[in-house]
Design goal:
- About 30% of the residues lie in helices and about 25% in strands.
- By secondary structure, it is α+β, with helices and mostly antiparallel strands.
- The chain has a single domain, classed as Alpha-Beta Plaits, CATH 3.30.70.
- It has a four-stranded antiparallel β-sheet.
- Helix 1 packs antiparallel against helix 3.
- It is globular, with a radius of gyration of 15 Å.
- The relative contact order is 0.29.
Amino acid sequence: MSFIAQFAGDLKEGKAREFQEWLNANEKEFANSFPPGSKYLGTYFAIYSSEKEGGNVHTFVEMESYATQDALAAEGGNPDSLYGKLQNEAIGFFDQQSSNWTNALYKSVTAATVYGE
């Protein structure tokens, strides 16, 4: 593992329980649908955070390399793939008008290039 990606946003008003039920029914299949080089780590409610903005639901994905982002994008854009289908269903629960979208890519300290020292 070299990277962990974080994707976060707000659920639509009144959709938390429905999303929770959807995830209970689909999480195993969703996790298994991720393309090679990536691994679904889970989706979490933010119970508390120092971030003023950043969404109330966070999904974490392990990625082998920068190239894995291209594989995720290609698979997510393919409505015929299981990953694309489930990803689009999941996105439907989120308030896409919210300004609380946040994404982050974390690289392992032991694998990162350190500059300036």
